[in-house]
Write a structure and sequence with these properties.
Layout (H helix, E strand, L loop, with lengths): L1 H10 L4 E5 L7 H10 L4 E5 L5 H12 L4 E5 L4 H10 L3 E4 L4 H10 L3 E5 L2 H9 L4 E4 L7 H11 L4 E4 L5 H8 L7 E3 L1 H5 L8
Parallel strand pairs: 1-2, 1-8, 2-3, 3-4, 4-5, 5-6, 6-7
Length: 197
Amino acid sequence: MEQMANMERVLKRQKYIPVVTFTENDDVERFADFLLDQGVSCIEITLRTPFAMQAIRNLKNAYGDRLIIGAGTVTHVDQILELKKIGVDFLVCPGLIRELFDAATKASIPFLPGVATPTEIMNARAWGIKWLKFFPANVNGGSIALKAYASVFADIRFCPTGGISRESSSEYLNLPNVFAVGGSWFQKEFPNKQNSE
């Protein structure tokens, strides 16, 4: 499927996908520089705050040639329609439902849906989706579960997200069926003095 090929093209060189939640008080551009200084050229901005869409728009305008910019926590079709106008590079959803899959496909935006169980993985594969977010990784068996999935779903690649730290990321990245790791530790490590008290 063309859309999944696009997902692979967009993310295949990424080891880390920082999962970030921005508010209007955050210095979005300085955080982008912080990532680039660490050799990280990808970001997933969650749609958990009213400022999220503007943050994505700002980064697309200023860093679109240097950062792969995705939107996370996508749960509604109207979000996909707005993100299409902004020109976001990829979508990340916590789960997988047909309505979102169809909207993302129609918008021609690479789509990384979340799964946790064998049934969800099989449903995704039946729709031609072979690159998946494993979420939340820490409460669904972590790397042990992904090791078990490797032999059962040999054609599926995962990006585990949820409860992963910089220290634990390597155990996931060493697995053959993991293409990248999503994590919020980048934002926790960001020396944002403006917001510290």
